[in-house]
Amino acid sequence: MKHMIFDAHLHIVDQDFPVESNNGYLPDPFTVDDYVGRTADLGIAGGAVVAGSFQSYDQQYLLTALRDLGPGFVGVTQVKPTISDKELFQLSDGGVRAVRFNLRRGGFDCVDYMADFAWRIFDLLGWHIEIYADSKSLAEIESMLRTLPAVSIDHLGLSKEGLPMLYRLAESGIRVKATGFGRVDFAVSQAIKRLYDINPDALMFGTDLPSTRSPRPFHSVDIEIIGNALGDSNAKRVLWDNAAAFYKLAV
User: Fold this and answer.
1) What is the pLDDT of residues 67-115, one digit of tens each?
2) Would residue 251 count as lying in a domain?
3) Domain with 134 in it: what CATH number?
4) Is 73 exposed, middle or buried (0-12, 13-18, 19+ CB in 10 A)?
């Protein structure tokens, strides 16, 4: 059975807007039209456009992408901790719903203000934070993460070594993106089964398109992996229900 899908993790790379090299890497263009064409047969009815490290703090590309993608799509941005409440409200009006902390490519400097900022945006706007990191590196901040109001972890935490940490975080209510299957070094189906058993609200599927720097880009078989691992009714939660609720999608 084909399900309606909320794509909880995608990137738009529109080179009409600033793109910065990160560790010598510049992505190829991947426009809204490219994304719509690439996913035309998947049943996607909404999603989260996520700011990449190569987009730094530019907001116009994100707001433009959300406008062009239309209802059902929300944004995950990167901002400086000094951003004003007025600017945050403006981003919210444009469809932004979360802030990303890139610990893998941006470093751990932001950890110093992560907790205060997470509470600030949650209390102000109901936003959550998203963390891009190898979950094995999160031991030092595990206790802090458990105190935050709303958190998700990208790409199944990336590493087999980090799976015990990821399972503990999911048990505490932290969400996990079932994305970037080509980035991980473990059996995805087994991890998905375990995470679903631990917390059926935790998992949120995403295509990770255009799969920048991934050893193996997204393929439609990734959706089948979820269905085969969880069965039809449980897959529906991962493909739509959990993310639609977490991102507060108006349905």
Assistant:
1) 999 999 999 999 999 999 999 999 999 999 999 999 876 565 678 889 9
2) no
3) 3.20.20.140
4) buried
